[in-house]
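Everyone, carefully examine this protein record:
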Amino acid sequence: MAKGKAFLVPVVILVVVGLLCPGMAVNAQGMGKRPGLSQTEIKEKGQAAHEKGKMRWESLSPEEQAYVAEKGKERAAQAKMTAEQYWNSLSAEEQQKLLEGKERVVERARDRWQKKTP
């Protein structure tokens, strides 16, 4: 896959999920209206989740770790292939529309993050 398309795969997956589950967009928009957690709280929750995941991973046997890693690689490869097929099936105009939508989503998320108190 070309370097330029590598960043598009996750975006396409998110867009496909968004198209299949339109109710999620409404819920995500509503979330921006609530004050929610501060940046520090979000980072602390993320760190706690990371530590929990790390402990769970370390509790697995080497065979289980190898199996989980292999399954993860298989699923990622399948998702990548599906996203590439979807992206390639779109016209140039549809691809451009998705890219513009991605830019708006990224900008909105960046603004919301910066408005949160540290």
Q: What stands out?
A: The CA atoms of residues 5 and 26 lie 28 Å apart. The mean pLDDT is 83. The radius of gyration is 18 Å.
